[in-house]
UniProtKB/TrEMBL annotation:
This is GGDEF domain-containing protein. Pfam families: GGDEF (PF00990). It comes from endosymbiont of Galathealinum brachiosum. PANTHER family: DIGUANYLATE CYCLASE DGCT-RELATED, GGDEF DOMAIN-CONTAINING PROTEIN. Residues 364-499 form the GGDEF domain. Keywords: Membrane, Transmembrane, Transmembrane helix. One of its GO terms (molecular function) is catalytic activity.
Length: 499
């Protein structure tokens, strides 16, 4: 029976560590997977931002080039003379000549149409079949007043599902304005550069979803699963999706890198967790299973002696006693401080709750004290932990000598103690006890030939005057102790009227 119990404890310990390890690995997996998703989204956001910048740069560059072309035309004296006298034949020749200019032949621009207007923006001539290609744009230009009519104007035109960029440049001087030259270009032609810049396939479509340009490998990559599909639109005043720009980024290589990083991090995390589990198992085995196995061994020795003496009744009785001792030892380890043999935090919490119920039922007061040694860390660092442990034992003895049998002192840990003083009639009773304790603890200690000086600081809370709940009483006493320590008061009872 005992062998089975020992084996069960060991098995349960291993099982618990495995569960904790599994939870750890699962949390690592979730964290890394979230990192993967965020990295993917950041990559997409970065590409979208860069795409917006490049679209702006390309369209701005196209408009600037068109301006330079228009300015070079309007500076031609023969062209100005023809504009002044509205010589349509000469003007048509100049319009036709622009198709052979460097800007056009080198592919910097794709000119859709060129319009020439007089200074009142009445059409003189054009190479376009549609005189209303950018009529809204011209109407806006006509509405300009004063000096604004001599400024270069640019904008977007939308007609028959297609977007165009329009530049209107005045011909002549401010004082002798001869008219205007309007150049309309196709932005889709310039946006081909996106493919070269990103090295990703692109697709350009008009407002009617007619394809204006499409990379060769667009259809193939569009079917792939690991893609980022980004869509942007160039707008005009009368259409929000005048030109659709699509970009595909094949994320297969990027995802492979992310998966490699994820798998590597999981493996490293598993190694760390397994190592931590092993260390925990060894530590717990030595600190917990070792004492239990020693107790079990003693029980078997008792049982074996009884069987060998053939005194079955006495042997069984000894076995039961050993078993009772075994469980008593377990209970002691769980509820008693091993250094001072004082009740620990578990017992303190239970007794505090019991005392609250009893005091409430009997309509009694009790005091809760928080005690903390002064300069204990300095003593530990100066003289070592052995001296520090001996000091704690002597402190406990002095505290117990200052208390009644009905009072309870517990060690919470380190140099922190709690004291429960039941059945007080007035809070002055608690002050008398606190003063007695602090005076007793302030006397020097003789430990292994060393004279140690260490006082104590005590915080006091009174039930039910300060509060009726356990947690609140603990907090009040704890804060009062720190107040006493910071102000070198020895002990402190907070003003009851403030609570």
């Amino acid at each position: 029976m005992l062998q089975h119990t020992g084996f069960s404890l060991k098995k349960n310990l291993i099982f618990t560590l495995l569960i904790l390890g599994g939870i750890g690995i699962f949390l690592v997996y979730l964290t890394i997977n979230q990192f993967r998703i965020l990295t993917y989204e950041n990559q997409k956001t970065a590409i979208e931002h860069l795409l917006d910048i490049q679209i702006y740069n390309i369209t701005t560059e196209a408009i600037t080039t068109a301006k330079e072309l228009a300015l070079s035309v309007q500076q031609d004296l023969d062209f100005q003379h023809a504009m002044k006298f509205k010589n349509i034949n000469t003007l048509d020749k100049h319009i036709q000549a622009q198709q052979n200019r460097y800007f056009v032949t080198m592919g910097f621009l794709k000119i859709k149409s060129i319009f020439l207007y007089d200074k009142k923006l009445n059409l003189i001539t054009t190479n376009s079949n549609s005189v209303t290609l950018c009529q809204t744009f011209i109407n806006e230009a006509k509405n300009r007043q004063g000096a604004n009519r001599s400024k270069i104007m640019e904008g977007r035109c939308f007609k028959d599902g297609k977007l165009s960029l329009s530049i209107l440049v005045p011909v002549g001087s401010i004082f002798n304005q001869l008219g205007y030259i309007q150049i309309i270009i196709d932005p889709a032609h310039n946006l081909h550069k996106l493919e070269e810049f990103f090295n990703y396939p692109i697709k350009l479509s008009d407002a009617n979803e007619n394809t204006l340009y499409q990379s060769k490998d667009w259809n193939t990559l569009e079917q792939a699963k690991s893609n980022i599909h980004i869509i942007r639109h160039l707008t005009s005043k009368n259409h929000p999706t005048a030109l659709k720009i699509e970009l595909l980024n094949n994320m297969q290589d990027f995802e492979s890198q992310l998966n490699y990083v994820r798998n590597t991090m999981i493996i490293i995390s598993m190694i760390i967790i397994v190592f931590a589990m092993f260390i925990s198992f060894v530590f717990l085995r030595q600190s917990t299973l070792g004492p239990l196995q020693e107790l079990t061994k003693k029980i078997h020795q008792v049982r074996g002696t009884s069987l060998e003496s053939d005194e079955k009744t006495a042997g069984f009785s000894n076995y039961l006693k050993a078993l009772a001792s075994f469980y008593e030892e377990l209970d002691k380890q769980a509820t008693t401080d091993s250094l001072t043999n004082l009740p620990n935090r578990i017992i303190f919490n239970d007794r505090l709750k019991e005392l609250i119920l009893r005091s409430k039922r009997n309509k009694e007061k009790f005091a809760l004290m928080f005690l903390d040694l002064n300069d204990f860390k300095i003593i530990n660092d100066t003289y070592g932990h052995i001296i520090g442990d001996q000091l704690l034992k002597k402190v406990v003895m002095r505290i117990q000598c200052s208390l009644r049998d009905a009072d309870t002192v517990c060690r919470l840990g380190g140099d922190e103690f709690t004291i429960l003083i039941p059945g007080i009639s007035h809070y002055d009773d608690a002050l008398v006890i606190a003063k007695k304790i602090t005076e007793c603890l302030s006397n020097p200690y003789d430990i292994k030939g060393q004279t140690i000086n260490s006082g104590a600081s005590i915080g006091i809370a009174i039930y039910p005057d300060h509060h009726k709940k356990a947690d609140d009483l603990i907090n009040i006493a704890d804060e009062a102790m720190y107040h006493a320590k910071e102000n070198s008061l020895g002990f402190h009872l907070p003003n009851i009227s403030q609570h």
